[in-house]
Amino acid sequence: MLEGSLLHQLKMAHQPGQVGKRPLNFGVYYKNTLVALCHALEDCILTCSSQPLVVTAFQRGRWYLQEADRYADLAEKSRQVVIMAAPDAGFAEHPTSQRSNVDLVSLTPDDPVAQEWHLMILAPTYSAIVLCQELSDADYGQSGPPTTDLERKFYGFWTFEANLVQEAIDLAIAHLRPYNPALADQLSSQVEAITAGQTVERDDLGPIVARVVDYLHETHTVRHAPGTATSWLKPEHHLDTNLVSNEVQAFLRMAQLTDQADTRNPNAAAEVAALAEAMGQLLDLPIWQISRLKLAGLLHRLAPLQQTESVLAPGTGRYSSDAPDQAPSCPLVPGAQVVRTMPQLRAIATIITHQTEHWDGSGQPGGLAGDEIPLESRILGLVETFQHRLAHLRSTAALSPEECMAKALADCQQEQNQHWDPKLVETLSLLVCGLQQGLNLSVSSPKISAGLWLIDSHCADDLFAQRVDRENRETTALDWDKV
User: Fold this and answer.
1) Could you say which DSSP state residue 166 is in?
2) pTM score, two decimals?
3) Which one is the CATH code of 6-203: 3.30.2010, 3.30.1760, 1.20.120, 3.30.870?
4) Gap between the Cα atoms of 120 and 441, Å rounded
5) pLDDT tens digits for 54-84?
6) Residue 165: how many CA atoms within 13 Å on its side-chain side?
Protein backbone atom coordinates (compact mmCIF):
# COMPACT_ATOMS: atom_id res chain seq x y z
CA MET A 1 0.00 0.00 0.00
CA LEU A 2 1.54 3.31 -1.08
CA GLU A 3 2.45 5.60 1.78
CA GLY A 4 0.62 8.91 1.55
CA SER A 5 -2.26 7.49 -0.50
CA LEU A 6 -5.81 8.04 0.73
CA LEU A 7 -6.26 4.32 1.32
CA HIS A 8 -3.08 4.17 3.40
CA GLN A 9 -4.09 7.20 5.45
CA LEU A 10 -7.52 5.76 6.19
CA LYS A 11 -6.05 2.37 7.10
CA MET A 12 -3.58 3.96 9.51
CA ALA A 13 -6.40 5.93 11.13
CA HIS A 14 -8.20 2.65 11.84
CA GLN A 15 -5.40 0.58 13.29
CA PRO A 16 -6.33 -1.57 16.30
CA GLY A 17 -6.37 0.49 19.47
CA GLN A 18 -7.53 3.73 17.85
CA VAL A 19 -10.21 5.18 20.14
CA GLY A 20 -13.65 5.28 18.53
CA LYS A 21 -12.54 3.59 15.31
CA ARG A 22 -12.73 -0.04 14.29
CA PRO A 23 -10.30 -1.80 11.92
CA LEU A 24 -11.47 -1.91 8.31
CA ASN A 25 -12.12 -5.07 6.28
CA PHE A 26 -10.03 -4.92 3.12
CA GLY A 27 -10.35 -7.21 0.12
CA VAL A 28 -8.99 -7.72 -3.39
CA TYR A 29 -11.25 -6.68 -6.27
CA TYR A 30 -10.90 -7.30 -9.99
CA LYS A 31 -11.46 -4.42 -12.37
CA ASN A 32 -14.68 -5.89 -13.78
CA THR A 33 -16.08 -6.09 -10.24
CA LEU A 34 -15.16 -2.46 -9.52
CA VAL A 35 -16.67 -1.20 -12.77
CA ALA A 36 -20.00 -2.90 -12.00
CA LEU A 37 -19.93 -1.79 -8.37
CA CYS A 38 -19.11 1.85 -9.16
CA HIS A 39 -21.72 2.07 -11.92
CA ALA A 40 -24.39 0.74 -9.56
CA LEU A 41 -23.50 3.20 -6.78
CA GLU A 42 -23.23 6.07 -9.28
CA ASP A 43 -26.66 5.28 -10.72
CA CYS A 44 -28.13 5.77 -7.26
CA ILE A 45 -27.13 9.43 -7.56
CA LEU A 46 -29.76 9.76 -10.29
CA THR A 47 -32.52 8.63 -7.91
CA CYS A 48 -31.15 10.08 -4.67
CA SER A 49 -33.65 12.30 -2.85
CA SER A 50 -30.92 14.84 -2.04
CA GLN A 51 -27.98 16.27 -3.96
CA PRO A 52 -24.66 14.61 -3.14
CA LEU A 53 -21.06 15.74 -3.19
CA VAL A 54 -19.09 13.35 -5.42
CA VAL A 55 -15.30 12.97 -5.20
CA THR A 56 -13.54 10.52 -7.53
CA ALA A 57 -10.06 9.40 -8.50
CA PHE A 58 -9.56 7.83 -11.94
CA GLN A 59 -5.82 7.09 -11.91
CA ARG A 60 -5.31 8.61 -15.35
CA GLY A 61 -7.37 11.05 -17.38
CA ARG A 62 -7.98 8.52 -20.14
CA TRP A 63 -10.05 6.41 -17.75
CA TYR A 64 -12.12 9.50 -16.94
CA LEU A 65 -12.66 10.14 -20.66
CA GLN A 66 -14.38 6.76 -20.95
CA GLU A 67 -16.89 7.90 -18.31
CA ALA A 68 -17.09 11.62 -19.15
CA ASP A 69 -20.48 11.52 -20.89
CA ARG A 70 -21.91 9.47 -18.04
CA TYR A 71 -20.58 12.01 -15.53
CA ALA A 72 -22.45 14.79 -17.32
CA ASP A 73 -25.70 13.09 -16.26
CA LEU A 74 -24.40 12.57 -12.73
CA ALA A 75 -23.38 16.22 -12.46
CA GLU A 76 -26.98 17.22 -13.25
CA LYS A 77 -28.07 15.55 -10.00
CA SER A 78 -25.07 16.49 -7.85
CA ARG A 79 -24.20 19.66 -5.96
CA GLN A 80 -20.54 19.24 -6.95
CA VAL A 81 -18.30 16.67 -8.67
CA VAL A 82 -14.53 16.57 -8.13
CA ILE A 83 -12.32 14.37 -10.33
CA MET A 84 -8.70 13.61 -9.46
CA ALA A 85 -6.42 11.99 -12.05
CA ALA A 86 -3.04 12.28 -13.72
CA PRO A 87 -3.67 14.40 -16.83
CA ASP A 88 -3.91 12.87 -20.32
CA ALA A 89 -4.63 14.44 -23.71
CA GLY A 90 -8.23 15.68 -23.87
CA PHE A 91 -8.78 15.28 -20.14
CA ALA A 92 -9.65 18.91 -19.49
CA GLU A 93 -11.19 19.65 -22.88
CA HIS A 94 -14.20 17.34 -22.64
CA PRO A 95 -17.53 19.29 -22.33
CA THR A 96 -18.37 17.66 -18.99
CA SER A 97 -15.22 19.19 -17.52
CA GLN A 98 -16.47 22.65 -18.44
CA ARG A 99 -19.57 22.42 -16.28
CA SER A 100 -19.72 24.89 -13.40
CA ASN A 101 -20.12 22.21 -10.73
CA VAL A 102 -17.38 19.88 -12.08
CA ASP A 103 -13.79 20.45 -10.92
CA LEU A 104 -10.69 18.65 -12.20
CA VAL A 105 -7.57 18.16 -10.11
CA SER A 106 -4.57 17.14 -12.22
CA LEU A 107 -2.32 15.00 -10.05
CA THR A 108 1.44 14.98 -10.44
CA PRO A 109 2.95 11.69 -11.72
CA ASP A 110 4.55 10.90 -8.37
CA ASP A 111 1.32 11.45 -6.39
CA PRO A 112 0.29 8.11 -4.80
CA VAL A 113 -3.39 8.96 -5.34
CA ALA A 114 -2.68 8.64 -9.09
CA GLN A 115 -2.50 4.87 -8.45
CA GLU A 116 -5.88 4.77 -6.72
CA TRP A 117 -9.47 4.27 -7.84
CA HIS A 118 -11.97 6.10 -5.64
CA LEU A 119 -15.67 6.91 -5.62
CA MET A 120 -17.04 8.90 -2.68
CA ILE A 121 -20.69 9.95 -2.53
CA LEU A 122 -21.97 11.99 0.41
CA ALA A 123 -25.53 13.34 0.64
CA PRO A 124 -27.94 13.98 3.53
CA THR A 125 -29.89 10.83 2.59
CA TYR A 126 -27.37 8.61 0.79
CA SER A 127 -23.70 7.77 1.12
CA ALA A 128 -21.37 5.24 -0.46
CA ILE A 129 -17.67 4.77 -1.01
CA VAL A 130 -15.32 2.63 -3.05
CA LEU A 131 -11.69 3.14 -2.03
CA CYS A 132 -9.11 1.01 -3.86
CA GLN A 133 -5.48 1.00 -4.93
CA GLU A 134 -4.04 -1.05 -7.79
CA LEU A 135 -1.63 -3.81 -6.84
CA SER A 136 2.03 -3.21 -7.67
CA ASP A 137 4.00 -5.53 -9.96
CA ALA A 138 5.59 -7.06 -6.87
CA ASP A 139 2.16 -7.71 -5.32
CA TYR A 140 1.19 -9.92 -8.26
CA GLY A 141 4.01 -12.31 -7.37
CA GLN A 142 5.61 -14.83 -9.70
CA SER A 143 2.72 -14.79 -12.17
CA GLY A 144 3.35 -11.10 -12.82
CA PRO A 145 0.81 -8.43 -13.82
CA PRO A 146 -2.21 -9.69 -15.82
CA THR A 147 -2.31 -9.39 -19.58
CA THR A 148 -6.10 -8.85 -19.60
CA ASP A 149 -7.38 -5.46 -18.43
CA LEU A 150 -10.38 -6.94 -16.59
CA GLU A 151 -8.05 -9.10 -14.47
CA ARG A 152 -6.20 -6.13 -12.98
CA LYS A 153 -6.47 -6.31 -9.19
CA PHE A 154 -7.17 -3.59 -6.65
CA TYR A 155 -6.83 -3.70 -2.87
CA GLY A 156 -9.38 -1.81 -0.80
CA PHE A 157 -12.95 -1.77 0.52
CA TRP A 158 -16.41 -0.32 -0.04
CA THR A 159 -19.28 0.59 2.27
CA PHE A 160 -22.43 2.66 2.76
CA GLU A 161 -21.35 4.00 6.17
CA ALA A 162 -21.72 7.80 6.15
CA ASN A 163 -19.06 8.38 8.82
CA LEU A 164 -16.42 6.53 6.78
CA VAL A 165 -17.46 8.36 3.61
CA GLN A 166 -17.08 11.72 5.34
CA GLU A 167 -13.74 10.68 6.83
CA ALA A 168 -12.43 9.68 3.39
CA ILE A 169 -13.68 12.90 1.80
CA ASP A 170 -11.98 14.93 4.52
CA LEU A 171 -8.71 13.13 3.68
CA ALA A 172 -9.27 13.84 -0.02
CA ILE A 173 -9.87 17.53 0.68
CA ALA A 174 -6.66 17.76 2.68
CA HIS A 175 -4.79 15.97 -0.11
CA LEU A 176 -5.96 18.29 -2.89
CA ARG A 177 -5.52 21.47 -0.86
CA PRO A 178 -1.94 22.07 -2.12
CA TYR A 179 -3.28 21.77 -5.68
CA ASN A 180 -6.26 24.09 -5.22
CA PRO A 181 -6.77 25.78 -1.81
CA ALA A 182 -9.93 27.59 -2.90
CA LEU A 183 -11.54 24.33 -4.02
CA ALA A 184 -10.58 22.68 -0.73
CA ASP A 185 -12.32 25.45 1.22
CA GLN A 186 -15.38 25.15 -0.99
CA LEU A 187 -15.57 21.39 -0.46
CA SER A 188 -15.20 21.76 3.30
CA SER A 189 -18.20 24.08 3.27
CA GLN A 190 -20.15 21.54 1.20
CA VAL A 191 -19.40 18.78 3.71
CA GLU A 192 -20.52 20.98 6.61
CA ALA A 193 -23.79 21.77 4.83
CA ILE A 194 -24.44 18.11 4.07
CA THR A 195 -23.74 16.87 7.58
CA ALA A 196 -25.91 19.64 9.02
CA GLY A 197 -28.76 18.50 6.77
CA GLN A 198 -28.50 14.81 7.61
CA THR A 199 -31.60 13.34 9.22
CA VAL A 200 -32.69 9.96 10.47
CA GLU A 201 -34.64 9.47 7.25
CA ARG A 202 -32.26 7.90 4.72
CA ASP A 203 -32.85 6.61 1.22
CA ASP A 204 -33.93 2.98 1.28
CA LEU A 205 -30.89 0.75 0.84
CA GLY A 206 -32.98 -2.15 -0.46
CA PRO A 207 -33.28 -0.93 -4.07
CA ILE A 208 -29.66 0.28 -3.95
CA VAL A 209 -28.35 -3.12 -2.92
CA ALA A 210 -30.61 -4.79 -5.49
CA ARG A 211 -29.06 -2.56 -8.16
CA VAL A 212 -25.55 -3.49 -7.01
CA VAL A 213 -26.41 -7.18 -7.23
CA ASP A 214 -28.04 -6.72 -10.65
CA TYR A 215 -24.96 -4.96 -12.05
CA LEU A 216 -22.60 -7.58 -10.66
CA HIS A 217 -24.81 -10.39 -11.92
CA GLU A 218 -25.12 -8.75 -15.33
CA THR A 219 -21.33 -8.57 -15.57
CA HIS A 220 -21.18 -12.29 -14.83
CA THR A 221 -23.88 -13.01 -17.46
CA VAL A 222 -22.17 -10.96 -20.17
CA ARG A 223 -18.88 -12.70 -19.54
CA HIS A 224 -20.52 -16.09 -20.07
CA ALA A 225 -22.75 -15.18 -23.01
CA PRO A 226 -22.39 -17.64 -25.95
CA GLY A 227 -19.79 -16.49 -28.41
CA THR A 228 -17.88 -14.25 -25.99
CA ALA A 229 -14.18 -14.77 -25.51
CA THR A 230 -14.71 -15.92 -21.91
CA SER A 231 -17.86 -18.05 -22.36
CA TRP A 232 -15.81 -21.21 -21.89
CA LEU A 233 -14.83 -20.29 -18.32
CA LYS A 234 -16.13 -22.42 -15.48
CA PRO A 235 -18.41 -20.77 -12.88
CA GLU A 236 -15.73 -21.09 -10.20
CA HIS A 237 -13.28 -18.97 -12.21
CA HIS A 238 -11.68 -16.35 -10.00
CA LEU A 239 -13.33 -13.41 -11.78
CA ASP A 240 -16.77 -14.89 -11.17
CA THR A 241 -16.15 -15.74 -7.53
CA ASN A 242 -15.02 -12.16 -7.01
CA LEU A 243 -18.34 -10.94 -8.42
CA VAL A 244 -20.43 -13.34 -6.34
CA SER A 245 -18.46 -12.50 -3.19
CA ASN A 246 -19.27 -8.82 -3.68
CA GLU A 247 -22.96 -9.61 -4.13
CA VAL A 248 -22.90 -11.29 -0.71
CA GLN A 249 -20.97 -8.32 0.68
CA ALA A 250 -23.72 -5.96 -0.53
CA PHE A 251 -26.33 -7.71 1.59
CA LEU A 252 -24.05 -8.05 4.61
CA ARG A 253 -23.24 -4.34 4.48
CA MET A 254 -26.93 -3.44 4.34
CA ALA A 255 -27.60 -5.71 7.34
CA GLN A 256 -24.65 -4.16 9.16
CA LEU A 257 -26.12 -0.67 8.73
CA THR A 258 -29.49 -1.91 9.98
CA ASP A 259 -27.80 -3.09 13.17
CA GLN A 260 -25.78 0.11 13.59
CA ALA A 261 -28.98 2.16 13.37
CA ASP A 262 -30.42 0.26 16.36
CA THR A 263 -28.57 1.79 19.31
CA ARG A 264 -30.33 -0.51 21.79
CA ASN A 265 -29.43 -3.73 20.00
CA PRO A 266 -26.46 -3.02 17.70
CA ASN A 267 -25.11 -6.60 17.73
CA ALA A 268 -28.38 -8.34 16.89
CA ALA A 269 -27.25 -9.95 13.63
CA ALA A 270 -24.01 -11.35 15.02
CA GLU A 271 -25.68 -12.65 18.19
CA VAL A 272 -28.62 -14.22 16.34
CA ALA A 273 -26.23 -15.86 13.88
CA ALA A 274 -24.15 -17.29 16.75
CA LEU A 275 -27.25 -18.60 18.56
CA ALA A 276 -28.66 -20.12 15.37
CA GLU A 277 -25.33 -21.80 14.64
CA ALA A 278 -25.20 -23.25 18.16
CA MET A 279 -28.78 -24.51 17.87
CA GLY A 280 -27.90 -26.21 14.60
CA GLN A 281 -24.95 -27.92 16.24
CA LEU A 282 -27.06 -29.14 19.16
CA LEU A 283 -29.60 -30.52 16.67
CA ASP A 284 -26.74 -32.24 14.82
CA LEU A 285 -27.63 -30.56 11.52
CA PRO A 286 -25.24 -31.02 8.57
CA ILE A 287 -22.52 -28.40 8.12
CA TRP A 288 -24.12 -26.93 5.00
CA GLN A 289 -27.41 -26.38 6.84
CA ILE A 290 -25.65 -24.76 9.80
CA SER A 291 -23.80 -22.41 7.41
CA ARG A 292 -27.09 -21.49 5.78
CA LEU A 293 -28.63 -20.84 9.20
CA LYS A 294 -25.72 -18.57 10.12
CA LEU A 295 -26.09 -16.53 6.92
CA ALA A 296 -29.84 -16.24 7.49
CA GLY A 297 -29.09 -15.00 11.01
CA LEU A 298 -26.77 -12.31 9.67
CA LEU A 299 -29.41 -11.15 7.19
CA HIS A 300 -32.58 -11.75 9.22
CA ARG A 301 -33.40 -8.06 9.79
CA LEU A 302 -33.71 -7.30 6.07
CA ALA A 303 -37.34 -8.42 5.95
CA PRO A 304 -39.28 -6.58 8.68
CA LEU A 305 -42.82 -7.90 8.83
CA GLN A 306 -44.35 -4.46 9.30
CA GLN A 307 -43.54 -3.71 5.65
CA THR A 308 -45.37 -6.80 4.40
CA GLU A 309 -48.55 -6.41 2.38
CA SER A 310 -51.17 -9.10 2.87
CA VAL A 311 -50.85 -11.99 0.45
CA LEU A 312 -53.32 -14.26 2.21
CA ALA A 313 -56.64 -15.44 0.85
CA PRO A 314 -59.43 -13.45 2.58
CA GLY A 315 -60.84 -15.21 5.62
CA THR A 316 -58.57 -18.26 5.36
CA GLY A 317 -55.35 -17.11 7.00
CA ARG A 318 -53.44 -19.15 4.42
CA TYR A 319 -52.15 -18.86 0.87
CA SER A 320 -54.71 -19.07 -1.88
CA SER A 321 -53.66 -21.80 -4.28
CA ASP A 322 -55.17 -23.46 -7.33
CA ALA A 323 -52.93 -26.47 -6.72
CA PRO A 324 -53.22 -27.47 -3.05
CA ASP A 325 -50.94 -30.49 -3.54
CA GLN A 326 -48.03 -28.23 -4.46
CA ALA A 327 -45.75 -26.47 -2.01
CA PRO A 328 -46.89 -22.93 -1.14
CA SER A 329 -45.05 -20.17 -2.91
CA CYS A 330 -43.10 -17.57 -0.94
CA PRO A 331 -44.94 -14.26 -0.41
CA LEU A 332 -43.54 -10.99 -1.68
CA VAL A 333 -41.98 -9.71 1.53
CA PRO A 334 -40.01 -6.63 0.37
CA GLY A 335 -36.79 -7.26 2.30
CA ALA A 336 -36.72 -10.94 1.37
CA GLN A 337 -37.40 -10.14 -2.29
CA VAL A 338 -34.24 -8.02 -2.33
CA VAL A 339 -32.26 -11.03 -1.12
CA ARG A 340 -34.02 -13.25 -3.65
CA THR A 341 -32.50 -11.25 -6.52
CA MET A 342 -29.31 -13.22 -5.96
CA PRO A 343 -29.89 -16.85 -7.07
CA GLN A 344 -27.49 -18.26 -4.47
CA LEU A 345 -29.58 -16.70 -1.67
CA ARG A 346 -33.07 -17.87 -2.62
CA ALA A 347 -33.22 -20.36 0.26
CA ILE A 348 -31.99 -17.61 2.63
CA ALA A 349 -34.85 -15.41 1.41
CA THR A 350 -37.32 -18.21 2.19
CA ILE A 351 -35.86 -18.68 5.67
CA ILE A 352 -36.09 -15.02 6.65
CA THR A 353 -39.53 -14.68 5.02
CA HIS A 354 -41.01 -17.36 7.26
CA GLN A 355 -39.19 -16.53 10.50
CA THR A 356 -42.42 -14.91 11.76
CA GLU A 357 -44.64 -17.98 11.26
CA HIS A 358 -46.12 -19.55 14.41
CA TRP A 359 -46.23 -23.21 15.37
CA ASP A 360 -50.05 -23.07 15.70
CA GLY A 361 -50.51 -21.41 12.30
CA SER A 362 -51.40 -17.96 13.64
CA GLY A 363 -48.26 -16.25 12.31
CA GLN A 364 -47.50 -14.44 9.09
CA PRO A 365 -46.93 -14.10 6.19
CA GLY A 366 -48.07 -17.58 5.09
CA GLY A 367 -50.09 -18.91 8.00
CA LEU A 368 -47.96 -22.05 7.96
CA ALA A 369 -48.20 -24.39 10.94
CA GLY A 370 -46.05 -27.09 12.55
CA ASP A 371 -43.66 -28.86 10.24
CA GLU A 372 -44.97 -26.85 7.29
CA ILE A 373 -42.65 -24.09 8.50
CA PRO A 374 -39.09 -24.69 7.26
CA LEU A 375 -36.88 -25.90 10.11
CA GLU A 376 -34.37 -23.06 9.65
CA SER A 377 -37.21 -20.51 9.82
CA ARG A 378 -38.44 -22.04 13.09
CA ILE A 379 -34.95 -21.89 14.58
CA LEU A 380 -34.33 -18.36 13.34
CA GLY A 381 -37.66 -17.04 14.63
CA LEU A 382 -37.08 -18.53 18.07
CA VAL A 383 -33.48 -17.36 18.57
CA GLU A 384 -34.29 -13.91 17.12
CA THR A 385 -37.08 -13.45 19.68
CA PHE A 386 -34.88 -14.79 22.48
CA GLN A 387 -32.01 -12.45 21.55
CA HIS A 388 -34.30 -9.42 21.19
CA ARG A 389 -35.81 -9.99 24.64
CA LEU A 390 -32.39 -10.67 26.12
CA ALA A 391 -31.03 -7.40 24.70
CA HIS A 392 -34.03 -5.52 26.10
CA LEU A 393 -33.52 -7.03 29.56
CA ARG A 394 -29.80 -6.25 29.52
CA SER A 395 -30.50 -2.58 28.82
CA THR A 396 -33.50 -2.04 31.11
CA ALA A 397 -33.50 -4.55 33.97
CA ALA A 398 -31.20 -4.62 36.98
CA LEU A 399 -30.47 -8.31 36.53
CA SER A 400 -27.34 -10.40 36.19
CA PRO A 401 -26.55 -11.88 32.75
CA GLU A 402 -27.69 -15.32 33.96
CA GLU A 403 -30.97 -13.88 35.27
CA CYS A 404 -31.57 -12.05 31.98
CA MET A 405 -31.10 -15.30 30.04
CA ALA A 406 -33.42 -17.17 32.38
CA LYS A 407 -36.15 -14.52 32.03
CA ALA A 408 -35.85 -14.38 28.22
CA LEU A 409 -36.00 -18.18 28.06
CA ALA A 410 -39.03 -18.29 30.36
CA ASP A 411 -40.85 -15.89 28.03
CA CYS A 412 -40.17 -18.22 25.07
CA GLN A 413 -41.23 -21.29 27.09
CA GLN A 414 -44.61 -19.67 27.82
CA GLU A 415 -45.17 -19.38 24.06
CA GLN A 416 -44.22 -22.94 23.09
CA ASN A 417 -46.93 -24.88 21.24
CA GLN A 418 -48.42 -21.52 20.22
CA HIS A 419 -45.53 -19.56 18.71
CA TRP A 420 -42.66 -22.01 18.90
CA ASP A 421 -41.88 -25.63 18.15
CA PRO A 422 -41.72 -27.23 21.64
CA LYS A 423 -38.77 -29.42 20.65
CA LEU A 424 -36.78 -26.37 19.61
CA VAL A 425 -37.63 -24.64 22.90
CA GLU A 426 -36.16 -27.68 24.68
CA THR A 427 -33.00 -27.31 22.59
CA LEU A 428 -32.83 -23.59 23.40
CA SER A 429 -33.15 -24.50 27.11
CA LEU A 430 -30.11 -26.76 26.81
CA LEU A 431 -28.18 -23.97 25.09
CA VAL A 432 -29.12 -21.40 27.75
CA CYS A 433 -28.14 -23.85 30.49
CA GLY A 434 -24.72 -24.18 28.87
CA LEU A 435 -24.36 -20.40 28.56
CA GLN A 436 -25.27 -19.95 32.23
CA GLN A 437 -22.58 -22.48 33.17
CA GLY A 438 -19.84 -20.77 31.20
CA LEU A 439 -20.29 -21.90 27.59
CA ASN A 440 -18.84 -19.17 25.39
CA LEU A 441 -20.27 -18.47 21.95
CA SER A 442 -18.07 -16.72 19.43
CA VAL A 443 -20.04 -13.55 18.65
CA SER A 444 -18.30 -11.38 16.09
CA SER A 445 -19.24 -9.41 13.01
CA PRO A 446 -18.35 -11.29 9.83
CA LYS A 447 -15.34 -10.27 7.81
CA ILE A 448 -17.40 -8.82 5.00
CA SER A 449 -14.57 -8.75 2.48
CA ALA A 450 -14.49 -12.56 2.69
CA GLY A 451 -18.25 -13.15 2.53
CA LEU A 452 -18.00 -15.83 -0.15
CA TRP A 453 -17.32 -18.58 2.40
CA LEU A 454 -20.96 -18.31 3.47
CA ILE A 455 -22.14 -19.57 0.08
CA ASP A 456 -22.20 -23.30 -0.64
CA SER A 457 -23.86 -25.72 -3.04
CA HIS A 458 -27.02 -25.95 -0.90
CA CYS A 459 -27.57 -22.24 -0.42
CA ALA A 460 -30.07 -21.86 -3.25
CA ASP A 461 -32.08 -25.02 -2.51
CA ASP A 462 -35.84 -24.56 -2.46
CA LEU A 463 -36.86 -25.42 1.12
CA PHE A 464 -40.47 -26.18 0.23
CA ALA A 465 -39.40 -28.35 -2.71
CA GLN A 466 -37.13 -30.22 -0.33
CA ARG A 467 -40.01 -30.83 2.07
CA VAL A 468 -42.40 -31.99 -0.67
CA ASP A 469 -39.72 -34.27 -2.11
CA ARG A 470 -39.06 -35.74 1.35
CA GLU A 471 -42.76 -36.31 1.95
CA ASN A 472 -43.11 -37.99 -1.46
CA ARG A 473 -40.23 -40.32 -0.63
CA GLU A 474 -41.84 -41.17 2.72
CA THR A 475 -45.20 -41.86 1.03
CA THR A 476 -43.51 -44.13 -1.52
CA ALA A 477 -41.79 -46.04 1.28
CA LEU A 478 -45.15 -46.57 3.03
CA ASP A 479 -46.71 -47.84 -0.21
CA TRP A 480 -43.92 -50.36 -0.62
CA ASP A 481 -44.53 -51.53 2.95
CA LYS A 482 -48.08 -52.42 1.96
CA VAL A 483 -47.00 -54.59 -0.98
Assistant:
1) H
2) 0.66
3) 3.30.870
4) 37
5) 999 987 767 778 888 889 999 999 999 999 9
6) 25
